[in-house]
What we know:
The protein is of the alpha/beta class. The protein contains eleven helices and 24 strands.
Amino acid sequence: MQGKLYATDLFPIGQIDHRINSSLAEHMGRSIYGGIYDPDSPLADDAGLRKDVMAAVKELNVPLVRYPGGNFVSSYHWEDGIGPRDQRQQKVDLAWQSVESNQFGLDDFMDWTTKVDAEAMIAVNLGTRGIEDACNLLEYCNLDTNTYWANKRRENGHPEPYHVKFWCLGNEMDAPWQIGHKTAHEYGQLVNETAKAMRSLDPSIKVVVCGSSNEHTPTFGTWESTVLDECYDNVDYISMHQYYELPSKGTMHHVAKSIRMDQFINSVVALCDAAKATKKSDKTLNISFDEWNVWYHSNEHDAHLEPWQQAPHRLEDVYNFEDALLVGSSLITLLKHADRVKIACFAQLVNVIAPILTTKDGLLKQTIFTPLRDVSKYAHGTALRTSAQSPTYQVPEFGDVPYLDAVTVKNDDHHYTIFAVNRHQTESLDLAVKLNDDRLQETSHLSYSCTDPEFKNSPEQSVSEENIQDDGQIILKPFSWNVITFTV
Ligand code: AHR
């Protein structure tokens, strides 16, 4: 099969914000307990943090981690997780009907982010709490004043403010399952007042308002319009969440689902720009795609979970190769929207629908780990409009789907990187590349392919990554994720 790719500096999409490689660490399942924090493990450091997990997170090069949820945040009291550990109380977690030990909390998370070289994005509880609590939390994190909460932080061993820049105002507040769910009108007003109060404490912060929890909700669209009508002037980003479900329509449909992400982003951009026009505002709202992933492998197991356990195995999806290709295409999609998607959090980071799965003795890097790591490592610079042509196939919902999905990034004046997926399961794709600078020479071609869509990494066997010598002809193997670099 033949394919053609053309890209030029004359048509830039936008500067890539490295924060599109971010993630979520929620208090649920074994994400924190048994994942990030595991004090009884021989693999933990003096603070109880898993060293092998930190090394894997650093390999993923995650720039920002959203915390503490997710649904969890909507009934969380962050004060329960600070101060001496032996004085912290166990509480119920209403979102996941679990027992929260509070042995890990805000300061512990901030220490962990320093160790993994990541920035924190903190979500505030707008489910069961409100403006005052959000301001107290912001004071605790960011203020240098001689006042109660800033002094509490000092008492807890952190003299310097954390200067957390990104703040999520609630989580999925449109969703009926959310503790403290609100109507769009109620939520929009609350966000406006919370954002105003928080900014008066710290004008340097950036705030994220909740968009719809997914594109299929009956209120999608009207939720965004109503909420933005209330708070447009006081927010900086709108959130998007999307999870791909069971591949009930087969592999070829599954690996095309990134088209849904593309359509969803286009819709939310249109809604934001309509709000901008209505408000006669100069400000353009950007997107924080702060939850996305494939999520279905664990559904059957999780349907039978007993409530009120502590850190049960929950949402522990074990990913296969077709999921990895879908994750790769989704990353390509995020890069194609580099002008508007400025933050994206892969959900989640450890154990819960995650690329890193721990056991007592070590960890497994799942199939999805490779594309996430590659984009974080190589997608620096400007995303370019990329014309990628190839034969297509037909699937219900998406119609004609090209086998080739690709985007080009101009890293700097001397380096370019192409990220490409060949969706064909049996045929390789011979790719003719034309970039604007004819002096560009291909310098490396990383290829990640597997003939079995259902193959899952295990301690015994993982999909191998190859560095291909193309000898002037770029061949994308069947069913493959590719990173091809060029240098002048
Ligand atoms: O990531 C798992 C859950 O999915 C999050 O808690 C919630 O925000 C979403 O519904």
